[in-house]
What we know:
CATH superfamily of the largest domain: Dehydroquinate synthase-like - alpha domain
Bound molecules: nicotinamide-adenine-dinucleotide, glycine
Distance between the termini: 51 Å
Strand content: 15-25%
Order of helices and strands: EEHEHEHEHEHEEEHHHHHHHEEH
Largest sheet: 7 strands, mixed
Amino acid sequence: MTTTIAVSGAGFRPYDVVVGDGLLAELGARVAPLARGRTVVVSDETVAAIHGQAALDSLRAAGLTAELVAVPAGEGSKSFAELERVIDRLLAAGLDRTDLIVALGGGVVGDLAGLAAALFMRGIDFVQVPTTLLAQVDSSVGGKTAIDTPRGKNLVGAFHQPRLVLADIAVLKTLPARQLRSGWAEVLKHGLICDAAFFDWLAGDGAAGATGDAEALHRAVVRSVEIKSAIVGEDEKEAGRRALLNLGHTFGHAIEAELGFDEEVMTHGEAVALGCALAFRYSASRGLCDAAEAARAEAGLAAAGLPTRLDHIGPFSAERLLARMAGDKKAEGGRLTLILAHGVGEAFVEKGADADAVLAFLKSEGAV
Ligand code: NAD
Ligand code: GLY
């Protein structure tokens, strides 16, 4: 089964996100109408070793030239050094403005290759072939591209929408279980933001998706992309509503930063899950939502084996977490912006959040 979701908005050329089983084999046929002849596949070493040849074979079978450039796997590749190396390989391959880049990998590859595409010859087309669940439901859609600097994550980037996104459910079979579960956190996030029925399905009958059931994954990816693309279509540059997609991220990012962004200790998705649980309990502590709704959110996250309690992770300093939250790039002029909720499926943006209330809440959650 294949499902196509059209992404459109006032400020960008519309494109399709295609979700299906076995799409990698169709890459060449689907890309050929968009490319003049030359393509470069950007991947990471892990994904390239598993899926790189299939991508190249498919592109070449469609009459396109295709070369592969693989960066080391991991967040460290979202760097100026790797960006320069990728752009140099594009130049060496003789690409011009009419050619096309294929990003084959998780969010790291998508963000890096997307930024290279935004910069190369002042911008060329690129196609996203996301190979992690997180990338299929989140990073491949919406046009945010970025690299990190030693001063923080995603601080150098551009909005550059892909021409096409191919989300092949079959490639998720090779994804480690923990990575799949981490992507599931972003799926649950979409339900928590604006679709309570979807959230309840994910927490119940759909939960098999978190451990690899292909049918449940298909439905979860499709609904997530529908939700994300509708929000991006309304607010591409995050002037307002797109901030909702950051549910769980301000708390989660602070926790990740305190843990030194060590993926062995806590993945990004796990941090987002914990951040969502905290955002709901904080909302309940302020009387903005019922405690029962916070418990409903927590139960759905915990059912997938995702963390929901700060004091289960380790000792944190409340002051340090708050400072990290205020330093988050979503903070405006040092004022905290939080994504809170009136209930499951009813998230909203709170600007200028009360730092003292957040501090007291973090202490009530076990931070010292
Ligand atoms: P990732 O790209 O590092 O992939 C995780 C790991 O899985 C890597 O080791 C990778 O080699 C491996 N992998 C990927 N696909 C595989 C497959 N099919 N089989 C086996 N192994 C596979 O991490 P991620 O979680 O996909 O993405 C995280 C990044 O995404 C972060 O840099 C984050 O900032 C970014 N992000 C961007 C956006 C956006 O809107 N642009 C949104 C969310 C996250
Ligand atoms: N992942 C948040 C966004 O794309 O806006």
